[in-house]
Structure formats: structure tokens, C-alpha cells
From TrEMBL, chain A:
UniProt keyword terms in alphabetical order: ATP-binding, Cell membrane, Membrane, Nucleotide-binding, Translocase, Transport
GO molecular function: ATP binding; ATP hydrolysis activity
Keyword Glycoprotein among record annotations: no
Example of a GO cellular component annotation carried by this entry: plasma membrane
Organism in which the protein naturally occurs: Ureibacillus acetophenoni
Name of the protein in its database record: ABC-2 type transport system ATP-binding protein
Automatic annotation (TrEMBL), chain B:
Subcellular location: Membrane
Keywords, alphabetical: Membrane, Transmembrane, Transmembrane helix
Taxonomic lineage from the root: Bacteria, Bacillati, Bacillota, Bacilli, Bacillales
Topology class, membrane: Multi-pass membrane protein
GO cellular component: membrane
Transmembrane segments: 21-37, 49-69, 90-115, 121-144, 151-172, 205-227
One Gene Ontology term of the molecular function aspect: ABC-type transporter activity
Protein name: ABC-2 type transport system permease protein
4Fe-4S is among the record's keywords: no
InterPro entries: ABC2_TM
Residues covered by the ABC-2 type transporter transmembrane domain: 37-224
Length: 282, 233
């Protein structure tokens, strides 16, 4: 596999404050990689360094095989797409006019605008002025702009934070299709279900450091306390270890047909984050 | 440079400009002043150049400054910077509309003031070079500010210095330091117009044009430097 992003011991300081302390990770081609952390953990700073909007204080960052600084070059800019919460749109122009501008900047045919609008479910609203749009619609237009040139690498900073469930599902399906077509996706979020549903691998970022990294399944296994909960018909609930010495209890309940429900106590990604950092993700 | 990208930015700016009345109505200022001077029967090269120099600052510099400041305020400039458009595509694309609007405004100002230059071709060269300078100045001011409100305040002293700089020369006898104002582009264009009204040598017309070109080069070099800085947070 080829590394699309390679970050080693990345550091970024703003005067006396350290936004990133020592961040290392690699993203392979074709992956959907989730960067999870609360506000202020360094997610946006990392994206800004990787897209040459910020310079690192220490360490190294390579994007698409080149030092991240080279993403400033015009020839590299059509290789990636980016959606951030402050990606601006021209408010006096319509949705379509905004996307037409970008189709020309990326030397794309006009048909790319329709394709991008279909991706975000906004084709029927294309004549609306951006100034009349809701926050969720603005986010969808910005997303359409970031994917319309079908980039090799897509940076998404909280892509569905302002969307309703229907449009969130629509966007997830679109992102999966884009990923199947070869786009590597770097996604930051503090939405655990989003990370679990979309990402091949995730990293937990806290106070500028990566606390854990792996597939959601690996992380759950690693942080599992290996217990199961048994709920009986009498309303009582029993928390038992998944060990041989507890097997008799389970056998007895089953023999007497007392069991109502039985399930493993697998930690959620939120639980894991809490376990690692002692704080919540929000 | 890519003509398609320059054209796309120009078309976008045109649509935005025509829908932004607060900025687009600024073109009326020099036109009204020129019309009034004409009606009042005030003539003379210096008088003709009051609305012309006001056109350079109130239209070329102010409008360009506001367009750039608004792009910064709405974070759309960063969007352009992150697209494949080069420094040249963006600066030319963003300057083209104001260049055309300024050229038309200055031409109308000359017409409305009743000014009939002795050598329209040579004066036009000076006026075009002036527009290029004031455009650079507007871009520079826009890059320095963060919002339209900030830009409108920031631009005021710049407008005063560059529009009314030549007036300082009238009191330069008492305050010799003010003689420096004769090197301002606004003073140099008046100087060129004066020379063209009488007998002139090649040097007489070359020096003012070269001085304005020097100002333009300095303004655009500085603009490119600041633009590159603004690409990074």
C-alpha cells in the first residue's frame, strides 16, 4: 500500500501554547481515516498544516508523497479537496454560480456542477442565493465544492455537523462511493457514530497528542473489559465476566429459562475516549 | 496563468459588484464632482484633475480594497488560494473588473468636466499606468484589513494622501517638507497634463510616466509579498 499522508512527530506552537505536541500517523491510499477529538484538541491545526495553510513548528508531514508545504503549489492543489467550517461562499451568488466558478478554477466541464449538486442533494435548489440558505445547506454546498474535482485526497472537518439525519445518510453514501472510486478521506469529527459508520481506522486526539489509533473493532477489543450483562425475567440484571467460573451461573439461568436478554459489554468509542483521557469528546 | 480562471474570477466579481450597491455607487462620486465643476464653469488642469484623482482613489483603490476585504471577511479568498488558481490568475482576475470600471469612470469624468487634453494618447498612457498603481494600492489595503468596515476606515488616510496630495504643494513654500508631495502619482499625472498643454520635450513626459510606473511596480511587488504571507495563517 502507498502512504497518502505520513506525519512524524508533528509539533505546532502558537506563542506559548502547544496546539500539537507529538503527532505521528500514516494514512494509506483508499482509507477513510477518522481524527477524533474534542474542540481545541488540534484537529483543524493538523488539517491546516497538511494543506499548507499553516507551517509546522517541528516534525515532518508528507502529503501525496511530497512535503506538506508543497501543497501551496497550484499543480498540487487540484489533487486534494477540503471542507472546513470556515470555507466561505459568495453570498450574493446562487449555489450554481458558486459551483460554476470553482468548476472553471479546476478546469472542469459544466456537467461537474450537476454531479456535485446531486451528490449533496441540492440540484433542485441550485438557483437559490447562498444568503438565503440554512447552515446545513451551506455545509452541503461547501461539500459539493470540495468534491467536484474528484480529488485523490479529501479533508473533511466536521462534514455533517449541521446536517439532518436524512442528508447525513445521503452524504455518507456519497462519501463511500467517492472512496470506492479511489479517494482517500481524512475526516475529523467528534461524532462517534459517524466515525464508526464511515471510518476504516480512527485516531483519538487529545491536547495535541494521539492517545490511540486503530480500526474501531481493534480499539473496542483492546479496551473491552470482557464482561457480559444478563437480564433475567424477574427484572434483575447481572454483570458477569466472560470466564469459565461464571459459566455455571449462566447454565443455571438458561436451564431454568430465566433469561430475558444477554449481551456483551462492548465499549463505545466514546467510552474508550473517556477511558483514555478522562474527558468527554464534546 | 490561465485565461479561463481569470475570466471566471472576473465574471464572479462582476456579478458580486453589480449586486453590491454600497460599493458600486462609489463610481458616481467623481462623475458628480466633474459635472458640478463643469456647471460652475471652473476650469484649469488642476481643477480637472481633482475629480480624476478622486476617481483613482474613490473608485479604483476604494472599490478594489473593499472587494478584497470582503473576500477576506467571508473567507472566500482562502478558497481561491486553495484552488489551482495561481497568484497571477487571482490578482489579475480580481483586478480586471475594477480596472475596466475605473477606465470607464475616468473617461466619463474627463468628458463631464469638459476637459479636452492637448495630447490624449500620451495622457491616456499616464492614466492607465495610474490605474494600475491605484489598483495595486487598493489590493494592498484590502490584504491588510480583515473586514469591509475596517477597510473603509483604513482607506480614508490613503485616499486623503493620494487624492489631495497635490494640494499640499500650494503651501509647500511655508512648509518645505510638503515638497515631497510632488513625487506622488497624483501630482505626477497633473504635471504630465500640464506639460502636454504647452511645448514639451521627451523628458518632460517621460519622467512623470516613469515615476508612476515606479510607484506601480513597488505597489504590486508589495502586494504579491503580502498575498503570499496571507496564504499561510
Amino acid at each position: 500500500m502507498t502512504s497518502v499522508i505520513e506525519v512524524q512527530h508533528l509539533k505546532k506552537s502558537f506563542q506559548s501554547e502547544n496546539a500539537l505536541e507529538d503527532v505521528s500517523f500514516t494514512i494509506e491510499k483508499g482509507e477513510i481515516f477518522g481524527f477524533l477529538g474534542p474542540s481545541g484538541s488540534g484537529k483543524t491545526t493538523t488539517i491546516k498544516i497538511l494543506t499548507a495553510q499553516l507551517e509546522e513548528t517541528g516534525g515532518s508531514a508528507y502529503v501525496l508523497g511530497k512535503p506538506a508545504k508543497e501543497m501551496k503549489k497550484s499543480s498540487n492543489r487540484n489533487r486534494f479537496g477540503i471542507l472546513t467550517d470556515n470555507s466561505g461562499l459568495y453570498t450574493r451568488l446562487s449555489i450554481e454560480e458558486n459551483l460554476l466558478l470553482y468548476s472553471k478554477l479546476y478546469s472542469l466541464p459544466t456537467s461537474a456542477v450537476k454531479e456535485a449538486l446531486d451528490f449533496v442533494n441540492l440540484y433542485s435548489e441550485r438557483k437559490k442565493k447562498v444568503s438565503q440558505l440554512s447552515k446545513g445547506m451551506i455545509q452541503r454546498v461547501t461539500l459539493a465544492r470540495s468534491i467536484m474535482h474528484k480529488p485523490e485526497l479529501l479533508f473533511l472537518d466536521e462534514p455533517t455537523s449541521a446536517l439532518d439525519p436524512v442528508n447525513t445518510t445521503h452524504i455518507y453514501n456519497g462519501l463511500r462511493k467517492l472512496n470506492e472510486a479511489g479517494t482517500t478521506i481524512f475526516l475529523t469529527t467528534h461524532d462517534m457514530s459517524e466515525a464508526e459508520s464511515l471510518c476504516d481506522r480512527i485516531a483519538f486526539l487529545h491536547n495535541g497528542r494521539i492517545k490511540a489509533i486503530g480500526t474501531p473493532q481493534e480499539l473496542k477489543k483492546r479496551f473491552s473489559n470482557d464482561t457480559i450483562t444478563v437480564e433475567l425475567k424477574d427484572g434483575s440484571s447481572h454483570y458477569i465476566e466472560n470466564r469459565t467460573h461464571e459459566a455455571n451461573k449462566l447454565y443455571e439461568w438458561m436451564k431454568n429459562e430465566q433469561i430475558e436478554k444477554i449481551y456483551t459489554n462492548e465499549p463505545t468509542l466514546g467510552d474508550i475516549f473517556m477511558q483514555l483521557t478522562g474527558s468527554d469528546l464534546i | 496563468m490561465n485565461i479561463g480562471r481569470i475570466q471566471a474570477i472576473f465574471v464572479k466579481d462582476y456579478k458580486e459588484f453589480t449586486r453590491n450597491y454600497a460599493v458600486s455607487t462609489m463610481v458616481l462620486l467623481p462623475l458628480v464632482l466633474a459635472f458640478l465643476y463643469n456647471k460652475m464653469g471652473i476650469t484649469g488642469v488642476e481643477t480637472y484633475f481633482l475629480p480624476i484623482n478622486l476617481g483613482f482613489t474613490a473608485v479604483t483603490t476604494f472599490v478594489q480594497c473593499c472587494l478584497i476585504a470582503e473576500e477576506k471577511e467571508k473567507n472566500t479568498l482562502r478558497g481561491l488560494m486553495l484552488s489551482p488558481a495561481t497568484l497571477g490568475d487571482i490578482l489579475i482576475g480580481k483586478g480586471l473588473l475594477v480596472f475596466i470600471v475605473s477606465a470607464v469612470t475616468i473617461a466619463l469624468t474627463i468628458f463631464l468636466s469638459g476637459y479636452e487634453p492637448a495630447n490624449l494618447l500620451l495622457l491616456s498612457i499616464g492614466l492607465i499606468v495610474s490605474i494600475i498603481f491605484y489598483l495595486g494600492l487598493g489590493t494592498l489595503c484590502g490584504l491588510f484589513t480583515k473586514s469591509i468596515v475596517e477597510a473603509s476606515v483604513f482607506i480614508l488616510p490613503v485616499m486623503v494622501v493620494f487624492s489631495f496630495g497635490p494640494l499640499a504643494l500650494t503651501i509647500a513654500e511655508q512648509y518645505p517638507i510638503l515638497k515631497i508631495a510632488e513625487w506622488l502619482p497624483s501630482a505626477q499625472i497633473v504635471e504630465l497634463a500640464y506639460k502636454l498643454e504647452g511645448l514639451y520635450t521627451l523628458m518632460d513626459v517621460t519622467v512623470p510616466i516613469l515615476v508612476i510606473i515606479a510607484w506601480s511596480i513597488a505597489a504590486w511587488i508589495l502586494t504579491a509579498m503580502i498575498y503570499k504571507k496571507r496564504m499561510v495563517d
